[in-house]
Amino acid sequence: MERRKDFFYTEAKDIHFIRPIEIIKEHPEIRDYIGTKNPYSILIVLAAVSLQVALAWFLHDKAWWMVILASWLLGAFFVHALFVMVHELSHNLFFKRKQANMLAGIFANSVMFFPSSVSFARYHLKHHAHQGIPEYDADLPSEWEAKVFKNYTIGKALWFLFYPVIQAARVPRMREIKAFDKWVALNWLVVIGADTAIWYFFGVKGLVYIGASFFFSIGFHPLGGRWVQEHYLASDDVQETHSYYGPLNTIAFNVGHHNEHHDFPSVPWNHLPKVRKAGEKWYHAIHYHKSWTLLWLRFIFDPRLSIYSRMLRKRHGEKTA
After folding, report:
1. pLDDT tens for residues 150-171?
2. Which string of DSSP letters, residue by residue, matches 217-273?
3. Buried/exposed 262-287: b ≥16 CB within 10 Å, e otherwise
């Protein structure tokens, strides 16, 4: 693997539009999982929200080191679970009515410090439809990220630490997405209201716990390995999407099954292992990861890996480099 000074560009068609057809030809039973709803997942949301509120209350008069440690050891995992559920809701996999899924997403988002569920759903669906195209895929890093944080250890560590802010900074380059409407307004109102209530009833330490849990859950934490695992080129191949088959899938609700999810985005989290088993011939023939923690550390310390380690497709109207 060589140190890259630019993104990897390809004109190849997205494999996720090709492989599912091949898999279903041999395993038509997968059709039974597509589009199924899992309303019982709302219990996971209720549990995670309740635990976050309870911990914010418990920590309101504890030492600062306990607040930060609890957010790293506990809160990050609860918020990450909520992120996974928001992701499920973005695909309308809880309830039949889209509005019910959106409301559930806003509720899940209520203790995640920063309002994002409604906007995430819109950007995420574009990611599936236009993977690798910068104008539509908000999961792709912007070129300024690669230039600012480079491949230095401290730069990549800071990139992880401020990842939520960096993600938000990608929004201006997106096209065809309505940035603000009544649903976004409701999302902001609920989350800001929840933050205010936590600060009022549990004090600044309660709010810091909520905020730190949020930043750790998708950034400077072993869970951050998930963001590298999904689409970064962390091996000698040029494979665009990677899955993770490790123990944290148990508490992350199979979100590591990322190839399976991109191939069948309308299959809920509880059926993804069945998709993997049916498609074993395909999924085990390609590279996959076994540890988020090791991948996270490797990304930070290996100078051959950087924000440039992503595959892009040509921009509309441009030729591929």
Report:
1. 999 999 999 999 999 999 899 8
2. HTSSSGGGHHHHHHH---SSS--S---B-SGGGTTTTTTT-HHHHHH-TTS-GGGHH
3. bbbbebbbbbbebbbebbeebbeeee
Q: What distance in Å separates the CA atoms of residue 153 and residue 258, rounded to the nearest whole number?
A: 26
- What confidence tens digit (pLDDT) does each residue in 60-87 have? 999 999 999 999 999 999 999 999 999 9
Could you read off the pLDDT of 41-61 as tens digits, one per residue?
999 999 999 999 999 999 999
Strand runs labelled E in the chain: 8-10, 311-313
Tell me what percent of the chain is helix, strand and coil, each rounded to the nearest 5: 60, 0, 35
Torsion (CA) 69, 72, 75, 78 in degrees, nearest 10: -150
DSSP string, 169-203: TTGGG--S----SHHHHHHHHHHHHHHHHHHHHHH
